[in-house]
Amino acid sequence: AGAETVKRAVELDVASRFQESLVCYQEGIDLLLQVVKATKDEAKKHRYRQKISEWLTWELYPDLFLSDGKYHKQIRIEENATGFGYEKLFQEYLTEIVSEVWVEDPYIRHLYNFLRFCEMLVKGPCKVKTIHLLTSYDEGSGKSQQISGLEEIQQSLRNYGVTLDIAFSSSIHDREIRFNNGWMIKIGRGLDYFKKPQGRFSIGYCDFDLRPCHETTVDVFHTKHTKKM
């Protein structure tokens, strides 16, 4: 699996699809490192390590890494911009090894946005089994509606074999989404960066790629220091 993933990374590299290539290189190396740990044959270990060392020559991507080897990319979404549905932001990081997702956002209020995010996870190609949501309670009368809505999403996800773990905190402030393959996305406005549609039957009501956005910044990180692997 590791070799196949790296082979795909090379194909993407040749096609100048560097962002997707980098994701595949990272995951392929992770898989091969697991093989190295499980292999008792020292000769094989040496060959695997040599090959991994070649793939870890990230100097080929000087614009993608900071000095400590950590990946960082920033996307600026302008006011009223379109074409920034959830698939646009997240899909390239949701590869097949993703099975667990963490969403931390103090203001999960527009539950249809969170539902749309969950639908994207269910569609794959990732194999998500658990979604952890940490948020805060809505104020006043909105609290009961918020809880019942989240419980309905929880039940619906269960029908697809996905567990939604819901927790509430009154002290969280940051907004971030993490995948268990090491990728982390921080959005200034969280998942609610879309503007309200003009009407129930207006373009962009269903297709978020056509929905105008609020101005916000998206920061993408990888939490593993590749030069230490």
UniProtKB/TrEMBL annotation:
This is MITD1 protein. SUPFAM superfamilies: MIT domain. It comes from Crotophaga sulcirostris (Groove-billed ani). Gene3D superfamilies: MITD, C-terminal phospholipase D-like domain, Phosphotransferase system, lactose/cellobiose-type IIA subunit. The gene is Mitd1. Residues 83-222 form the MITD1 C-terminal phospholipase D-like domain. It holds the Pfam family MIT_C. GO terms for cellular component: midbody. InterPro entries: MIT_dom, MIT_dom_sf, MIT_domain_contain_protein1, MITD1_C, MITD1_C_sf, MITD1_N. Coiled coil: none annotated.
